[in-house]
Design a protein that fits this description.
Blueprint (H helix, E strand, L loop, with lengths): L5 H22 L9 E5 L4 E3 L5 E6 L9 E5 L12 E3 L2 E8 L6 E10 L6 E10 L20 H37 L3 H4 L1 H31 L4 H14 L1 H26 L4 H25 L10 H32 L5 H37 L9 H30 L3 H31 L14 E7 L2 E8 L4 E10 L11 E8 L6 E5 L1 E2 L5 E2 L3 E3 L3 E10 L6 E9 L11 H25 L6 H26 L14 H14 L1 H4 L24 H4 L5 H10 L15 H11 L4
Parallel strand pairs: 2-8
Antiparallel strand pairs: 1-3, 3-6, 4-7, 5-6, 7-8, 9-10, 10-11, 11-15, 11-16, 12-13, 12-17, 14-15, 17-18
Helix pairs in contact: 1-6, 1-7, 2-4, 2-7, 2-8, 2-9, 2-11, 4-5, 4-6, 5-6, 6-7, 7-8, 8-9, 8-11, 9-10, 9-11, 9-12, 10-11, 12-13, 14-18, 17-18
Length: 750
């Protein structure tokens, strides 16, 4: 019978799997995590003069029409709305409900939604009053930590199954097969044949565990979202979720991807019935191809895909992370199972030789995988935990536990690789201790995967409220001053601001001439508020109460004026009043650069592996070399391009107005602007008289005009100039980043 190449079936399986993903890619969109509330009309805790006729809520994701609603209750628990919740047909992130005229009193708005993207159900509530202050008698709801109680367990099961399936196939091809060839030639022992049963059991177990987990996830997810009570309604709902949410399409796609594996294997086995060795090897390729496509579908609905500005970077990083996780974790568990199975099949010397060869052959790949896991893990951590305070959320604490478990597993792997096989000369001792250690490492890996399942079920730290504090805290150091600032309670309404200033020795600073705090709402141009802090008896500084009455991103600038004339500036941004407060906005440009550097490091590591394997003269060396060169090239292009990306579409200045930004802007101003605007910005520069057309009175005075424009307008004027004036464009002179720094500086001119 004609032998059909393995690569043909790899392509066949990939095409079948990609077909299952087609509906996902054609309808998927950039996502933001759960569909969290970002704006409400009327506002949270607002006191209205007259009854509103409509409640409008805006969320971070498009919503499912059938699974999203708003209900409004009075203090007696009566529903007072018109029960006509609907989505805006032009923007499905807006949900509204109408109301009749309502009497004076406090009302509770309770909303429920399901994102079409991640399929998560989110609920929340807030209050407003009509004609009187807010009453303490109001409804509230408590949101469950998970969508359903078994969510972390189900997600852990899926990860255990798919990582075992992928890792065991990888180990069989890259580690086990070469060892089998070597030992067959040296001892006439066919390890490949001896491990046939445990090898197939592992692959089958990985497949069944993954399929069971995916099926359970779909069933429990649907049951929770649709709150079904009968079999008929469940069957209707399990079909409806495919049409209602992108998550549903992805869930069905993953099931279809998994089911292509036994179909492809049966077809391949039939075609290769007289080539048993080809079937055994080809099945490993089929498994790897299936898992790779599954990883893509899995990553599209993960937390890393929850940030719109870094969507593609997040998805790629997640794919890399899960691939290298599978290589490390799946291979270790597979080696553990094989080692226990071979204890009764091989002599102590041969078993010792097998384990030693496995350690040596896996060492380079293992080190490479762990390094890439660490790099991609740091990127993921930066995306999900973007401020130290976020570590004090349940997500952050779980992440710390995961890192500790990984560290222990890496230490054990290092002991096995660099201590056991080198310093234990007796095969019996080496074998016994090595098997015990890799067994412990496998147990740690299972615990790590369980922690990951919990992380995937929890709200990311960047979108969760801290569990240890009921205030917003900042801590920064600048020019010999350490500032500790607290905004209490850090929510909509009146807030107190407390500042503690200390020097390098920790002593309190009480001789500042002025401590000035400026607060600015960044979502819209509504001006800013400036407060002067006063020294209290407790040697700290406080301000008069500050009203934060708008939900969104607020910027706080602190200026410490000293008698020496060397002022210190601090700047912070915080999301105030959101239904799910964020710990801060991610720096998109840092994210893109880090992504480029991650790809660059991946390419460099592949080049190192190429050298280890013999470079161009070895088959694997050539593969690593080609992919490595491509990786380095792509990484360099992304890193360089990210620094030159235009920032002129930003409504908010991406550069915090801290001392560093102000100094950069000052240097740029003196090099490019002093000649016309003068050193102090009043428009008396040495070239003022030569400007054409001649500026009208005060037209060149920045102290007059800068306060009249928001940051984005100042950016546009500097970059593109102003028609009919002598203000010429600077887009060929200054980068976008430099212009934003310049904007920060000219706003400090007095």
């Amino acid at each position: 019978m004609r032998v059909i190449p393995v690569k043909f079936w790899v392509r066949f399986l990939t095409l079948c799997s990609l077909l299952a993903l087609y509906v996902t890619f054609t309808s998927s969109s950039i996502v933001y995590g759960h569909a969290n509330l970002v704006d409400a009309v009327p506002k949270q805790n607002s006191v209205l003069d007259k009854s509103p006729l409509i409640i409008n809520l805006k969320f971070t994701e498009t919503l499912s029409e059938n699974l999203s609603s708003i209900k409004v209750y009075d203090t007696q628990g009566n529903q007072v709305d018109n029960r006509d919740s609907k989505l805006d047909p032009t923007d499905r992130t807006y949900l509204s409900v109408t109301l009749p005229e309502t009497p004076k009193g406090t009302y509770t708005v309770i909303w429920r939604n399901v994102s079409t993207v991640d399929g998560h159900k989110v609920r929340g509530s807030y209050f407003y009053s009509v004609g009187e202050p807010l009453s303490s008698s109001s409804f509230s709801i408590e949101e469950s930590m998970f969508l359903y109680n078994a969510e972390p367990l189900v997600k852990s099961i899926i990860l255990i199954g798919i990582l075992l399936l992928f890792g065991s196939a990888f180990f069989n091809l890259i580690i086990l097969k070469p060892i089998s060839v070597t030992m067959l030639m040296a001892t006439n022992i066919n390890i490949w044949q001896i491990t046939l049963i445990p090898r197939n059991i592992l692959l089958l177990a990985g497949f069944i565990i993954t399929l069971t987990g995916c099926s359970a996830q779909l069933v429990l997810h649907v049951s929770s979202l649709y709150e079904v009570t009968t079999l008929n309604s469940f069957l209707n709902s399990i079909v409806s979720i495919f049409f209602d949410t992108t998550w549903g399409k992805l869930a069905w796609a993953k099931l279809c991807i998994l089911l292509t594996l036994p179909i492809s294997y049966a077809t391949y086995h039939y075609k290769q019935s007289d080539q048993r060795e080809n079937v055994l090897i080809g099945s490993q390729y089929l498994v790897i191809a299936t898992c790779m496509v599954f990883f893509i579908a899995h990553s599209l609905s993960g937390h890393n895909a929850s940030i719109s500005s870094l969507y593609y970077q997040g998805v790629v990083i997640n794919i890399l992370h899960i691939v290298f996780s599978g290589i490390w974790t799946g291979s270790v568990v597979t080696l553990t199972v094989y080692s226990h199975c071979l204890r009764n099949r091989l002599s102590t010397i041969n078993l010792s030789d097998f384990i030693k060869q496995a350690f040596l052959k896996f060492r380079n790949v293992g080190i490479f995988s762990i390094i890439l896991l660490s790099i991609t893990g740091l990127y993921v951590g930066w995306m999900q935990v973007n401020k130290p305070e976020a570590l004090f959320t349940l997500y952050g604490i779980t992440l710390i536990a995961k890192v500790l478990l990984i560290s222990l597993a890496i230490i054990i792997a290092g002991i096995n690789t660099y201590v056991i096989i080198k310093f234990l000369k007796k095969p019996t001792s080496m074998t016994r201790i090595a098997i015990a250690l890799i067994t412990i490492e496998s147990i740690l890996i299972i615990l790590i995967i369980i922690s990951v399942g919990s992380l995937k079920s929890l709200e990311p730290a960047k979108s969760a409220q801290t569990i240890l504090s009921e205030q917003i805290q900042f801590d920064q150091y600048e020019q010999g001053i350490n500032l500790e600032m607290a905004i209490v309670p850090g929510s909509l309404g009146l807030n107190s601001m407390n500042l503690n200033l200390t020097d390098l020795t920790g002593n309190s600073i009480q001789n500042a001439e002025n401590v000035i705090i400026k607060s600015t709402y960044l979502n819209e141009d509504v001006g800013d508020t400036t407060l002067y802090a006063y020294l209290t008896d407790s040697a700290t500084y406080e301000t008069e109460p500050l009203m934060l009455n708008l939900e969104g991103i607020w910027q706080f600038e602190v200026l410490i004026q000293k008698s020496s004339g060397l002022d210190s500036r601090f700047a912070f941004r915080e999301n105030i009043g959101s239904s799910n407060p964020q710990f801060g906005e991610l720096d998109v440009f840092v994210g893109r650069i880090l992504f480029g550097l991650t790809i660059l490091v991946l390419g460099i590591l592949l080049l190192v592996l190429s050298i280890i394997y013999g470079g161009w003269h070895d088959k694997y060396g050539r593969i690593y070399l080609i992919i490595g060169v491509i990786g380095v090239s792509i990484g360099l292009v992304i890193s360089i391009y990210s620094r030159t990306i235009e920032l002129n579409n930003q409504a908010t200045n991406p550069m915090l107005p801290d001392s560093i930004s102000i100094q950069i802007g000052k240097n740029i101003y003196r090099e490019n602007c002093v000649a016309c605007h003068g050193l102090t910005g009043i428009g008396n520069g040495p070239l003022y008289e030569t400007l054409r057309p001649i500026p009208e009175k005060d037209a060149n005075n920045l102290l007059v005009h800068v306060p009249l424009h928001p940051d984005n307008e100042l950016f546009t004027i500097i970059k593109y100039g102003k028609d009919g004036t002598s203000m010429y464009p600077h887009e060929s002179i200054l980068s976008d980043e430099e212009i934003w720094h310049l904007v920060n500086y000219i706003k400090t001119l007095k």
